[in-house]
Amino acid sequence: MSRWPVLVAAAALVALPFVYASPYPLHIAVLILIWSFAYTSWSVMGRFGLTSLGHGGFMGIGAYVTALAWNRAGLSPWLGIPLALVAAGLLALVVAYPCFRFRIIGHYFALVTLALSGIVLQVITATRDYTGGSLGYTPERHQGGSSLYALQFSGKTTWYLIALAVWAAGLAVWYRVDRSMLRYALEAIAEDEDAAAATGIHVTAEKLKITVLSAVMTALAGSLYCQYQMFISPDTVSGIAVSLQMVFAVVVGGIYVSLGPTVGAIITIMLAEVLRISAGTRAVGWDNLVYGVLLVLFIVFLPRGILGSVLALRRPTLTR
Fold first, then answer.
1. Residue 120, C-beta contacts closer than 8 angstroms, at least 6 positions apart
2. pLDDT for 65-76, tens place per residue?
3. What pTM value is reported for the model?
């Protein structure tokens, strides 16, 4: 397969902010890229039957740990973000290990992770003296304005390029997993854990690897969202609603296709913006209602998602 289309598309994406520098479209593009990375992070794990509803918790940890480290301890995001990733990875280990060790799978695993998402949201809300609670939290602005040390930039172009690089890195991780032995091990586990174990696969270890990787990537998305928006609240970066939004976007875009989460991000961000512009405050919460209805419809009538279905039409033999 020729690489020229990929190279041309990459060059066009890099050149976009220099050719068309209107702030609002660039803002939407940055949001799409950050959320695309978050959705890709979920699909890295979810495509192997590990349905997590707790990724809103990991994203919240990424955002709040980074902001608190900066405001409370004066730690640069270059140190705060790795700290947030470690925290998310450790939490994933603490929650996932007993689940995998005692074979809590399927709907029960989804319920455990759902509880995790709710607990993180409640902790953030309850510790309002530190996190601002339901009123939200704002990282302190660097006195010099744009600052590489504080990872704060006033221009949209810089953030667009950062988000584009992270989005591309997410796709690279997806491809790396897709072409690794880990994929075959996880597919075998998804089909039959006992048979996979009998062939020498360490079931718990393999599932932990992909879970921690997915959690760490999601926390990075939360950290970047915090640094870009310079304001976070429990409802926007954590909780059950964010977790369900991730599931919806990936299922709609195509869970078994690398660019499926990106298609899902375009749909979710554009839907939220259309509702916000057309209905204003009257549309608060409508996007979640629409997500729920569409999720059911897609699961029933278009289980491969939009991009997956298009590719299936072109390649009838397309497999997982």
1. 54, 56, 57, 60, 61, 238, 239
2. 999 999 999 999
3. 0.93
